[in-house]
Amino acid sequence: MQRNSFKTLMNLILILLVTFSFIYGFQVTKKAQTLITKGMYEEAIPLLEDIILDKPENGEAYYLLGRAYLLLGEEESAFESFNRAISAKKKDKKRLTYRFKELGRKYSLEYGELGLAEKLFDLAVNINPKEKRKIAEILIDEGEEISETDGYFTPKLFKLAVRYLENQEIKSALIFDIERINQRETIKAMNLLADTIKKYINDNGTAPQHSGNLTAFSLFYSALMPYMQKQNLFVFDCWENPFYIISGESNSNDFLIISSGRDGIRDEDIPLKKITFNCTKLSDFNNDLILKNGNWIKTPKIE
Fold first, then answer.
1. Model pLDDT for residues 206-222, shown as the tens digit of each residue
2. What is the mean pLDDT of the chain?
3. Range of the domain at 246
4. Same domain, 149 and 208
5. pLDDT in the model for residue 82
6. Which of the listed residues 126, 159, 176 is the one where a domain comes to its end?
7. Comparing C-alpha atoms, which of 227, 229, 231 is closest to residue 197?
8. 187 and 55 assigned to the same domain
9. Which residues are registered as beta bridge partners of 275?
10. Which tens digit of pLDDT belongs to each residue from 224-259?
11. How far apart are the first and last CA of the chain?
12. Angle, helix 168-204 to helix 154-164, in steps of 10 degrees
């Protein structure tokens, strides 16, 4: 009888200890989460490390630790913790998949850090490959929404979406849209550059001299700075090729602005008369775009 009572007492004590440990661990995890929300990442890390030391299978603590490291810019430690969270949370993969997908959304759409976003999306896909379609939809929807206001960032979102698309027809159409947006935004940048040069000419009677690829450190660019009126003058086109400028030769007010197109290969000949071209396939975007004295002499046809 006494032995049974002792055994019952010990079982009760064990249950109380386990319950206390669970409650304590939960409270500490919530405290760490609150610290992260408040931006106190360094303070949260030792709390989470203590939880993991006591319970190495605590996937929630690993996930929050990864969040804290990521927000501190310690990427390697962050993804090491995220991967351990995946290993530990064997029964809660659905929730973890959602979290990585939402983190990827935040880093791609709010922070513009597409490299980190891609790694976070990949974690979600590693848990559930079916998430590829949902991730692509997120990136495409957001890209379409901002395409008119931020044409430089939209193609980057679309390029990331292409990585997760499995439908070849949709993928091909999206790749074409990327090049169309790149071309459209490059034309906008060239028009802005031409308008700024014309303002300089109005004040100085001649265009600033330059011959070659445009750089932000050139005398030509510095000469235009007072005329920018808080607008960004881009040195590169949307295919990340430098604009080629011939300007102010022999004290003239003539200037030429060239984008070498998608392939980055500039044509040697400058057309004497205006040329327009259709864009029906990807190779059509290899055509140069050319502005002379603010007038287009090589440009795509307006649809």
1. 999 999 999 999 999 99
2. 88
3. 181-300
4. no
5. 95
6. 176
7. 227
8. no
9. 298
10. 999 987 778 899 999 999 999 999 887 788 999 999
11. 94
12. 160
CA angle, residues 212, 213, 214, in degrees to nearest 5: 115
Output the domain CATH number for residue 254: 3.30.700
Q: What is the DSSP string of 116-132?
A: HHHHHHHHHHHH-TTHH
Q: Are 40 and 152 found together in one domain?
A: yes
How many other C-beta atoms can be found within 10 angstroms of the C-beta atom of residue 119? 19
Give strand pairing partners of 290: 258, 298
How confident is the model at residue 23, as a pLDDT?
41
d(Cα 226, Cα 18) in Å, to the nearest integer? Answer: 70
108-135 mean pLDDT: 94
Residues 189 and 156 both lie in one domain: no
Q: What pLDDT score does 14 carry? A: 43
Q: Contact 194/294 with Cβ under 8 angstroms?
A: yes
Q: Which residue bears the tokens 């004497």?
A: 272
Shared domain check, 159 and 39: yes
Residue where a domain stops, chosen among 119, 145, 176: 176
pLDDT digits (tens, 9 = 90+) for 47-99: 899 888 888 888 889 999 999 999 999 999 999 999 999 988 777 788 999 99
pLDDT of res. 303: 64
Q: What's the token pair of residue 8?
A: 């019952």
pLDDT of residue 291: 97
**Taking a C-beta distance cutoff of 8 angstroms, is the pair 274, 301 a contact?**
no
CATH number of the structural domain spanning residue 66: 1.25.40.10
